[in-house]
Amino acid sequence: MIGLFDNEFIEPQEALGMRVEGEFRDLDDPDAFVWVRSFADMEARTEALKSFYSSAIWKKHGPAANETMLNSDNVLLLKPVGGVMPFSHNRARKEEVEQQEAEGLVIATICSLAPGTEDEFAALFIQEALPVLQDAGARVDAVLVTERSTNGFPRLPVREGETVLVWFECHKDEAGLARYRERLGQNAKWTEEVYPRMDGQCWRRIEVARLTPTPRSLCTW
After folding, report:
1. Cα 13 to the center of its chain, rounded Å
2. What integer is the mean pLDDT of 122-148?
3. Strand partners of residue 78
4. Lowest mean pLDDT across 21-25, 73-77, 92-96, 149-153
5. Residue 20's closest CA among 42, 33, 3, 36?
6. Cα 16 from chain centroid?
7. Quick one: pLDDT at residue 194?
8. Which residues lie closer than 8 Å to 194 by C-beta, 6 or more apart?
9. DSSP class of residue 33?
10. CB 218 within 8 A of CB 113
């Protein structure tokens, strides 16, 4: 799947106005392929997806891609939270082509919230959590919340009826992540105040995915 995606699908999507921000393997799920793509707005998303999935490229290679997938419906439709420019640390596509390598360890954290509470939770995260995470050594690449607009391309389903906040943080390697978590665990504001407040507003356990960039990922260390 990754080889097919990298060889056939990146440039055609980006030519239509999409941006493939990151591609990852999941260290805790060897059969998973996780990726993030962005659009200028919801209208641009609808038009770009219509164009790509009716293109000659998809008609030629789509069946082979679909044969690799058992589930392609685990999709969140998200928008950025003010205060963090999403994926501003990404390398340029030109750099990716020249380097042909990707390093780092990306942690994706999903907080499941009650409907209508995302703005309050996002403000808590930006004002209280983000400075603590950064002081402990995290490079926070994106903070995103649920986009409530109607999915304009229902051929690709998204997880509806959910309210989430998701943040992506990047570390150099496992050792760097371990040092960061040790510093975070020693910060009383985080362990006794901020994290308990966040956890108390989530209706299920906060989800954490450990991701490693694939060779053509723009989101890398």
Report:
1. 17
2. 98
3. 146
4. 92-96
5. 36
6. 20
7. 98
8. 124, 128, 129, 132
9. E
10. no
Residue 213: Cβ-neighbour burial (10 angstroms; 0-12, 13-18, 19+): buried
For the CA atoms of 36, 40, 45, 46, what is the dihedral angle to 10 degrees? 170
Who contacts 76 (Cβ-Cβ below 8 Å, separation ≥6)?
Answer: 110, 146, 158, 159, 162, 164, 166
User: Taking the CA of residue 148 as centre, how many other CA atoms within 13 Å lie in the half-sphere pointing to its CB?
Assistant: 6
Contact present, 103 and 221 (Cβ < 8 Å): yes
Whose structure tokens read 């510093």? Answer: 183
Q: pTM, whole model, 2 decimals?
A: 0.96
Residue 99: phi, psi to the nearest 5?
Answer: -85, -35
The edge-to-edge listing of strands for the beta sheet with 139-146 is 29-38, 19-26, 207-213, 105-113, 163-171, 139-146, 78-80
**Angle CA 15–17–21, to nearest 5:** 95
